[in-house]
Amino acid sequence: MQFPRRFSAPAAGVVAGLLVGVIDLLVLIFYPPSRGTWVIPEWTWLTVPWLWMTVCCFIGAVLARWPRLAASAMVAFGFGTLLLSRVATPFKSATGLSSKVILLLWMLIVLLLAAPAFFIRLERARRIGLWLLACVVSFALIGASAAQVRPADWLSRDRTPQHASGQRNVVLVFLDTVRYDDAMTSMPRLARFRQDALTFDDAWAPAPWTTPSHFAMLTGFDPWRERADNITHLYARHLPMLAERFKARGYATSAIFANPLLTTNGGFDRGYDEYTPSRDSGVCRSAIGDLLSRLWMNDAPRSPVCGWFLGPEVTGRAVQFLRRAPRPYFLTLNYLDVHDPYYVRPECRKQGFQPMPRAQRQLVVDSLPAHPADPALVPRAHAQYRQALQCLDRSLGELLDVLQRDPDYATTTVVFVGDHGEHFGEHDLGGHGNSVYAPVLRVPLIARVPGNAPRTVAGALSITDLHAALLQNLDTPAKPFRLLDRQRRRPVISDYLLVTPTSVEGGFSFADDRFQYIRWHDGREAIFDHDGREVPVASQAAWAAPVRALVSRAKAVQQSPNEFSALGYLQ
Question: Is the pLDDT of residue 52 over 90?
């Protein structure tokens, strides 16, 4: 077997990389579970083959003096990485084989693919230095794309005012996967901020997972009104986003989102002058990027690229924006540090800290009533979650220090809000997105609003109402903060739908100052007090009757959006 004489090892690497890259791209397009998230970033069709061509070319250039070895190495790395990233996990799920067996099978297949490549004859490369230089330059560009470098952070001048300008800036911070109870007890820096803010101690998310909750707060639209797309899990409606409203009034707008689900494809970027979500580069959706992003999920060292942003990265990018942003500005942040795998950064680890192994952690996250986790594992996972919260608290403190030194802090609105919580054994559940129980719906909401004295605010409210409340920052003169007016709050309704290969389940929740009512799609219902204790439905018949009717109308509205006005309370 012999390539045409014009092919040297680096040139053959370019051809091999193009082939592997096209296969990788086709897998991304036609096999959605391989994407890591449900949508594909722009320019992925270019960046994925480009990455593979660069890597294989580099292998060919480094091993150019041993062309037979170079051919085997390119095949082994290219197709081997593709198999490991795209095939190993689904194959393991389908067969039930152990990781060790899967690894042995993978090594055998790689050997079988690489061995024939050893007999490919390649021409000795000339000008290896130029090939290596081209690869280095290409890697630098790829790295900048994967790291989502923002040139404005270095090229723009510092615009921090020397004296107060009186501009009413807004900083909205999403605390992803943060429960209300743990936020109140495990975050000392946030507790100090609460002394100067409004603390809403009964705030509820409209859904138990990220995309619908963020969509609700950024649009003011109750996500239970219609289902998201079954494939992309995104909403078809293009409602005016909060950033669009602020931008129309002359605000500089920026978003830095650690959660990679908050993509431009979902419309979350609309209205932002700068929009930076994690893993938004097509490079990170390649098989190589996917493996890098999964390292720390599998107890390996965290990759500096293609993982989601940690707290210091979100804060660092936010501080860069604050220093160069014209006034007024609207800054939106998402911190994902306490999401599974509950990663605790090395500088935050207490003496004797041992990360929970992935296999044990997964048993807790995936626990269901039919297969509850070992009771001994749940407290350990919860303790690691709390340590991750304390570590996140450091990053929030650094952000607050910068904001409080700003001359415009007196007129700046700062809001911290959770998008959903997390189960740790409650009702034999783990993780989130799988129920409408209080641990995944009750979230922290802390708002420092100029002109409003700090205090704790009682009464159940939906965080969806935050959208209208923040828009008041545009009013002149500013009106009293909307969330303080209990008459203007919408009914606190939440829902979820969980589809598995063997079942479909879901339910609605309603909460007020006394109880939480839950009705599952199969007709079961339950009432809980605010301490999580179940109350017999029959004992609260008078309270439950109108609530049951309200939930029934909400469910009907979800099926027939045109009837939504029958509820009579929404914008």
Answer: yes
**Final residue in a domain of this structure, among 121, 147, 173:** 147
Q: What is the spatial distance between Cα 330 and Cα 385, in angstroms, rounded to a whole number?
A: 30
Residue 56 lies in a domain: yes
Residue 198 pLDDT exceeds 50 = yes
When divided into structural domains, the chain yields a total of 2
Same-domain status, 112 and 33: yes
* Residue 198, helix vs strand vs coil: strand
**Residue range of the domain that includes 335:** 164-214+241-259+308-491
Q: How confident is the model at residue 96 (pLDDT cuts 50, 70, 90)?
A: confident
Q: Does 277 map to a domain?
A: no
Q: Which residue has the tokens 């599974």?
A: 340
* Domain shared by 176 and 133, yes or no: no
User: What is the domain-level CATH number for residue 475?
Assistant: 3.40.720.10
- Distance between CA atoms of 94 and 537, rounded to whole angstroms? 42
pLDDT band at 501 (very low <50, low <70, confident <90, very high): low
How far is Cα 391 from Cα 393, in angstroms, rounded to an integer? 5
d(CA 85, CA 378): 30
DSSP 11: H
**21 and 134 assigned to the same domain:** yes
Cβ atoms < 10 Å from Cβ of 453: 8
> What is the distance between the alpha carbons of residues 417 and 218, in angstroms, rounded to a whole number?
12
Return phi, psi of residue 141, to 5°: -70, -40
513 part of a folded domain: no
Backbone Cα Rg of the chain: 26
Q: Please, which residues bridge with residue 292 across strands?
A: none
- Among residues 278, 249, 274, 253, which one has the least CA distance to residue 263? 278
Count of residues making up the chain: 571
420 belongs to a structural domain: yes
Average the pLDDT over 401-430 and give the result.
Answer: 96
CA pair distance 497, 503, nearest whole angstrom? 11
Q: How many CA atoms lie within 13 A of 407 on its CB side?
A: 12
Pair of tokens at residue 56: 């294989």
